[in-house]
Amino acid sequence: xxCSRSVTCSAAERFARGAWAAxxxxxxxxxxxxxxxxxxxxxxxxxxxxxxxxVPPHDRxxxxxxxxxxxxxxxxxxxxxxxxxxxxELLLGDYLRTGDFRAAKEREPPTWWHAQxxxxxxxxxxxxxxxxxxxxxxxxxxxxxxxxxQRIAWGTGRFWSPLDILNPPSPTALEREExxxxxxxxxxxxxxxxxxxxxxxxxxxxxxxxxxxxxxHDNRGGLDFSVVAGRFRRDTVAGLDLAGQIGATGVxxxxxxxxxxxxxxxxxxxxxxxxxxxxxxxxxxxxDGAAVPDxxxxxxxxxxxxxxxLWTTYHELVANLEDGSRYYRPALTWSPRENLDLTVGAQxxxxxxxxxxxxLPRVLYLQLQWxx
Length: 372
What we know:
This protein has two helices and 19 strands. Among the domains are: 1-134, no CATH class; 298-372. By secondary structure, the protein is mostly beta strands. It has an 18-stranded antiparallel barrel. 9% of the residues lie in helices and 55% in strands. The model is unreliable at 1-17 and 19-34 (pLDDT under 50).
């Protein structure tokens, strides 16, 4: 197995062997308990992109990406369950000759475990495999413990989320649903029908960048709320998340206050409404008190319309309210089968020179995704 410069073969191999050993032990335990085996699912995605590189000289490129994801999820005994998601990716095209790709190869993975390695790097093709998720969970009465690479979803924001610090969303990401996840230990304890308390510990290679936080969630009078406090990397953070209904409209809000290098107050207000004619509208306002003055206030709107049972159109608009720069994403999806989607779309960025969103290149893309 050939490894990238940022990942040593020995580290990747040791993690892979340990993960598979743990999976085999867990499978044996599940077999002895005579429980139903975990389910196997996944998807295959083929993504064709036409764009320009961000790194000068801003070369135009095409990129063909193929990703196979295999997922093993479910209970393995009366107390244990697993969630393992393995990705195998192949990249083709002249994107492999851009400065963007060279920078991406040299970049250190943001995760604590280096559970990825490349197996092909010919200059014309690049192959990479990794563990997208790898966790095991135990249930002990009212307490659940999950260890490993996981998605910890604190916060309700779509484009931005002050509380979703461990897995923050990116409003302009092409695959926004593909969150990397965090290597952590999560302990949740049920306090009632909807009330729970949680503690998370996420280590880091640099001890000062480790995260430790606590969360309390409850519902009072139809209003969901969460209180979060802890140390996220080098910042001490306290925050509140609220979600409820005003008539048929869902409303939500997040606010955090941070002390440290990234200190400041962040506030998010959002609303979602589903109309009877299959139109779904979402909107958010975000004020980032920790950002520089020309990047503090943003707005985002998303509209989804089911034209027919087979055709769906989706539009996103993100604007920087300080400098006037904008991001617009139209997309059209055809679903000839329940588990097959074909999407054509684009990303357009505009604004005056030097503004936040104007510097990003436009993207045209065609995506085929088959779920199994």
